[in-house]
Each structure stands twice: as C-alpha cells, then as structure tokens.
Amino acid sequence: MSAARRGIATEEMKTVAKDEDVTLDWLIPKIATGSIIIPHNNVRPQKIHVVGIGKGMKTKVNVNIGNSTLNQNLDEEVNKAKVAVKYHSDTIMDLSDGGDVGLFRRTLLEAAPITFGTVPVYEAYNYGVEKHKNPLDITEDDFLNAFERNIKDGVDYTTIHSGITKDIAKRILAVKRHGGIVSKGGTITAAWMLKYDKENPYYEHFDYLIELARQYDVTFSLGDALRPGSILDSHDELQVQEMINISRLTKRAHEKDVR
C-alpha cells in the first residue's frame, strides 16, 4: 500500500497485473486505497506466487487445513497442502489448534509455496491447553507473542479478532443469541476477557500489531468474531458494534499504510 501511494510498481504488482490481465495504471490506485491487496510476507523463506485479492480481481480459492486437539497427523496435512497446490488453490490457511502448532505451521509453509494464512489466537489457545491444561490460563503476552511468532515464520496474512471488546463481551449473555458465538477465536477471546475482566489484547494493542505488520509486510484480516450463526441473530447489536470497531481499526491501519 505504501509503495502504491507513492506510485511505485513493485514486482508483486507487476505479477498480479499480468495474471489478471489489467494495467498497472488501473491496479496501483486500487492497492493505494485498500480495495485490492497482495498478501506477501517479506521474510517468507521461499518464493511464492502472489495473488491479488479484492475488487475487480478474479475469484480466488482458499483451502483450509490443519490439525485439532483431537487429531494430529502432520503427514496428512502436508498431503492436503500438496493437493491444494496441485489443483491450483490460490491461498491456503492453517487452522491448527492442537499439538505442536508451530511445527505444523513451518512445515506447511514449506509444503505450500502459495499465499498462506493463520489465526494466531489458536496458537495462544493451544499454549494454554498444552501448558496449563486450560485454554483460558493464558496472559495478554501470550496473545501478542502468538501473533509475532506467526508473522516471523513467514505467514502472509493473519486473522485477528480485534473488533470484539470487553464491553461487547459483557453484553453477550444479555442479548441471548439463538446461535451463540460461532467463531472459535471470538469465543476464546470473549471468555478470556470475561474471566479476567481485561480488554481484548488485539484491540488494546492494535497499534503495536500494526507496527509488526508493517515490519514484515503482513496483511490483516480483521476477523468477525460475532458474525451470526443464525439469520435470527443477523445485525443484532453485537454484530453491529463489532463492525463499527472493525471499520475504525481498518481506518487506523490505512492511515499507517498497513493493508
């Protein structure tokens, strides 16, 4: 985004323009305003084929893989990643939350030379399970350290549940949703805030996350922790309040040249 705002065409932009059959004059302004992104961590140890995602781009296919607290088989997940690459998936997302999450992530990053994403709060959750036998026995630093480890490993984009705040979490039981909270990351974050009466670390320290993201050129996906699991919950006060927070955080990130 920073380069686009200065009118500079990076190699990634040239690749996307060629793949999408568009001109750089058409592409660059859209990257500058954030309507198109090209996720690519600048420390990714191997060359990957980058893709453009957003308005006016071809539809992209993402494949979700990853182990769980009930089943951990690295060979199976590596095979899934290779199949995804073979059949031209554009992006892949590691949703692992059990076992050695860091080892799974690094291994899958090597097996899949395409745009790669993760959900760092899953690693924080796993840390609580593995170390304390309770996923909520984690600290504010555990949330932040999980994010930092993910991006240092080369992850291109991360889903961060930064829009759900302590005030919103305290309203969850009163609202009495039909579908509850269907987001795992949202559930973990809300339960942690209510247990310790503390603010969401990804909300409170969002500027710190921005600085890390800028350093590694990592793309944020601001996760909708309170999306409705039932149409009866659609656009309730929880979802709307979170969307307002996310819009404000997006504006803040754009002002700091973070995609």
From the structure above, extract its key features.
9% strand, five-stranded parallel beta sheet, alpha/beta
Short description:
This protein has 259 residues and is an alpha/beta fold. Helices cover 50% and strands 9% of the residues. Helix 7 (140-152) runs parallel beside helix 12.
Q: Per DSSP, what share of the residues sits in E-state strands of 2 or more residues?
A: 5-15%
Mean pLDDT: 94
Give the strand tally: 7
- What proportion of the residues is helical, as a percent range? 40-55%
In CATH, what is the homologous superfamily of the domain at 119-255?
Radical SAM ThiC family, central domain
Shape assignment:
globular
The CATH architecture category of the domain at 119-255 equals: Alpha-Beta Barrel
CATH top-level class of the domain at 119-255: Alpha Beta
Distance between the termini: 6 Å
Question: Topology as H/E string?
Answer: HHHEEEHEHEHHEHHHHHEH
| Major sheet attributes | 5 strands, parallel
Order of strands in the sheet with the most strands? 3-4-5-6-7
Q: Low-confidence segments, ≥5 residues, pLDDT <50?
A: none
Structure annotation, total helices: 13
Structural class: alpha/beta
Radius of gyration: 18 Å
What is the CATH third-level topology name of the domain at 119-255?
TIM Barrel
